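Q: Here's a chain of 244 amino acids. Please give me its 3D structure as tokens.
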Amino acid sequence: MLEVKHLVVNYRGLMAVDNISFCLLPGEIVGIIGPNGAGKSTLLRAILGLIPLEKGIVQFHSRTLSGQLKQVAYIPQRAQIDWDYPITVENVAMMARIRHTGLFCSYSRQSKLIVKNALERVGMWELKHRPIGELSGGQQQRVFLAQALAQEADLFLFDEPFVGVDKKTEAMLFEVFDELKSEGKILLVVGHELRETMREYDRFLLINKTLIADGTRQEVITATNIQKAYGDNVIFLQGNAKND
């Protein structure tokens, strides 16, 4: 399981994450939701050790996660990726195998097969020689999902993976998520516009700097919790929060 205990992050002089704790079990798809600036992306980066913690512990299978990053696949927001970098679809996916083969070692036949299978799984093998910058937003997200699959991880962290993708890619992403769930993987997904996709998640973490609610959709998406997270400038309507 993934255990996050009393996480505190002061980021650039501001309290970004304040005493957040939760536990995720194998075979769960968990969404992180909250308003803009709530610390959702910061929480993911803090879990990964990409930004320093002021306080807290992150453990995976009862051991410090920082020593097990080979078991973690992370897909950042699309805005954090340099799409002009001259690299092909296949090479993007192959980067997942570096921790398995070593930085300056040749990729094994097994690694090449794993990458091929991952790209085929997301429908991108036929475009393996295409520069990543020439793809559509949905195609780019599929390639990075293939990279995550090729890592053969047990813990998957996705930061707003559905931004800028088409409905076909969205459906394919959830199909792969369900397959990973059935394999006992843990998926933690920062959401943006959830709405009709809420049924795809097992649990939600509603945050705004601190953890406001943790549970099923019915337990988390309540008028009281939404008001705590978003303030008075939202309208609560049938389980959705909309800006007023």
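Q: Can you summarize the key feature?
A: The chain has a mean pLDDT of 88.
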